[in-house]
Specification:
Elements (H helix, E strand, L loop, with lengths): L41 H5 L4 E3 L5 E5 L5 E5 L4 E6 L15 E2 L7 E2 L1 E7 L14 E7 L5 E9 L2 E10 L2 E10 L5 E13 L5 E4 L5 E4 L12 H5 L20 E3 L4 E3 L4 E5 L18 E6 L4 E8 L3 E6 L11 E16 L4 E10 L3
Length: 357
């Protein structure tokens, strides 16, 4: 397994993990009359310093030397927690992700990978029983990785989640093993926690084209595509607020900071007809930042391989989910599907980096 996130990308990360040797479990030798060997628990098979699997094998937790940690639910490749060290004190860890748990359904929010095949018979995001652990690796517990894999139809997918002291990354490789070309819409959508509605914003999208657009539907969504596009109660509108334009109507971001106090659902990127040009000025940037004034935290989001950036805020709709505020954002390729010919593969990644030390 090779790391998708290296020091040659948009930011400097620690030395990439080699991940060339796989860990194998050798069961005891069997006799002719013995029963088939029992598979070792995941922690016995893959666990090491900084990488811990739960007893029932449904989650893996990565923890680096400075105490930063994340948790991944294996069955559906869902990142349910990311707690980086953000202050120079022993208890200086903050949960970045907004995740909801309910007895009737599996957790929502967090970081969810979405890969949908566009066809008359769509192959949706793999279900809760499709993902398995393929490999792990580490580098002196300052860089940890777990690789998950699954096969759905003609698509073979690998999902690599990495943790570093000041960042985390989630990267996907999709290969078409079929005999026909496929079209994919895909995204890595993250739900970020904020202390209060009034202190929530993003910056770094000035000059980029955007239009109102629903998110891709997924098992991880908090707001469905319909709810994300639903109009907010006018009584909640703040001074200077302007209603969102109709879906498909493009605008240019003309301010450096986008306030996310009110409800919106946007896709940032060049309009499809402009992407035919070799050079265009309104493409989505490679990185942007979230601003949490309530906790005085700033996180940098970096996209690799994806063409667009999705951003949504719930506005007053957030109140029914709890006292904390949240937004949904991440790299995406929704407007123009990714075309994969037989034997071709596509790679995409998201990096969350912070300077809050």
């Amino acid at each position: 397994m090779a790391s998708l996130v290296s020091s040659s990308t948009f930011i400097t990360l620690p030395k990439p993990l080699r991940l060339t040797q796989r860990t194998h479990f050798s069961p005891p030798s069997a006799t002719l009359s013995s029963a088939p060997p029992v598979e070792a628990p995941l922690d016995q098979k893959y666990g090491r310093k900084g990488i811990k699997f739960t007893d029932n094998g449904d989650e893996v937790e990565l923890t680096v030397r400075n105490g930063s940690s994340l948790k991944v639910r294996i069955a559906d490749a869902h990142v349910v927690s990311y707690k980086p060290k953000v202050y120079w004190k022993d208890d200086g860890f903050e949960e970045v992700l907004y995740t909801l748990d309910s007895p009737e359904a599996k957790s929502r929010g967090g970081i969810g990978l979405i890969v949908n095949q566009v066809s008359s018979e769509p192959i949706k995001t793999p279900s809760s029983s499709d993902w398995t652990v393929k490999d792990v690796d580490s580098d002196a517990i300052d860089a940890l990785q777990v690789e998950l894999g699954c096969t759905k139809g003609s698509l073979e997918m690998s999902y690599v989640v990495s943790l570093y002291p000041l960042s985390m990354a989630s990267a996907v490789i999709v290969k078409n093993n079929g005999v026909k070309a496929v079209s994919l819409t895909t995204a890595i959508l993250s739900h970020y926690r904020f202390k209060k509605r009034g202190g929530t914003a993003i910056q770094g999208l000035k000059g980029c084209s955007y239009c109102s657009h629903p998110p891709l539907s997924s098992p991880f969504e908090i707001l469905s595509p319909f709810e994300a596009m639903k109009t907010e109660d006018p009584s909640w509108f703040s001074f200077g607020w302007e209603p969102e334009k109709k879906q498909g109507e493009w605008s240019i971001q003309d301010v450096p900071i986008t306030i996310l106090k009110n409800k919106l659902s946007r896709l940032y990127g060049s309009p499809p007809d402009e992407r035919r040009n070799l050079f265009h000025n309104s493409a989505a940037p490679s990185k942007y930042e979230t601003i949490d004034q309530g906790r005085e935290l700033f996180f940098r989001m970096i996209r690799i391989g994806f063409d667009e950036i999705y951003v949504s805020s719930p506005g007053s709709f957030a109140e029914k989910y709890g006292k904390d505020y949240f937004i949904c954002s991440g790299p995406a390729s929704m407007m123009v599907p990714i075309e994969l010919k037989p034997g071709e593969e596509w790679k995409g990644a998201q990096i969350i980096q912070h300077d809050n030390l």
